[in-house]
Amino acid sequence: MKKAYLYLENGQVLEGKSFGASGTAMGELVFTTGMTGCVESLTDPSYYGQLVVYTFPQFGNPGICLADKESPSVRMGGVVVREYCEAPSNFRCDMTVDQFLKEQNVVGIAGVDTRMLTQMLRDGGVLNAVITTEEAKPDMDALKAFKIIKSVESTSETEIQVQMPKGEIEYSVALIDYGAKQSIANSLLARGCKVTIYPYNTPAEDILAGGHDGVMLSNGPGDPADNPFCIEQIQKLLGKIPMFGICLGHQMMALAAGGKTVKMKFGHRGANQPVKDLNDGSVSITSQNHGYAVDGDSLPKEGVLRFVNVNDGTCEGVDYPAYHAFSLQFHPEAHGGPLDTLTAFDRFTDMMKEGL
Which of 53, 63, 137, 328 has the most CB atoms in a 10 Å sphere around its CB? Predict the structure, then answer.
């Protein structure tokens, strides 16, 4: 089996086995603790440009079921696992993870100590890294200087798309696509929403002219502050139409309202993040994928901190009563992952029913 190498910006080099495509990928090395949802995580646009360490020791046991994809292609730069499954057992399986990554031209490395890597990232923070099947050492100066850019531009659809519910249309929702997971649209469709998907660079005036009942701000990759145009459009929409933001949409809504965001040490990535609702004290288990967070202390008077992470106290959700808007850092529509908070979409439809 062909060798692969993982170079870290701190100088460490790990040797492993190549799977997926051959070649070289440079990116930000992060870890995820999810035990399920292989194809869902691989095709999650929020991972754009990142090299992802899977903490669960075996990867790809159920194989790849193409019907579970969250976007048309794999968005992460590379995959790091302890062991990948060459012979999956699942009646829904369409192909192995090795075949899928080859098809998608994504490099992978197996046979490395993912526990050690996870502890390193947890203790020291995320690092830039290179996965390569080449013998030549990568340019370490370029590695240290690497930064993901134009991430939203790279993950958004470029044309307006419309998805229709199976039954009667109850509401019309404008979904602004920063790298949206299909599960978000599916959750809206299941509630009778006609979903019009707009590219990330759509002017607010065009969205308001569409006559929609509400606006959905999607998830997406990268630093929210790198998207000034998107933030400006959200500012123009706030208070004019009911709004719900998830993940990157949550962060940019806070920036549009006058709050701040911060880069986290290693982020939250996985399907086991406990979140507390400050309204009633209940705790839900959530799926998350982000490296930035809203600074809860920076929220303007219009923003009310609603949810916090039980582990580290970071902001997980904000209510904006004056704007008829709310946002969540976690994914209520998670696939695969817990669906404890799926009722957030019911809250959104109730908000659209009430109007402004």
Answer: 53
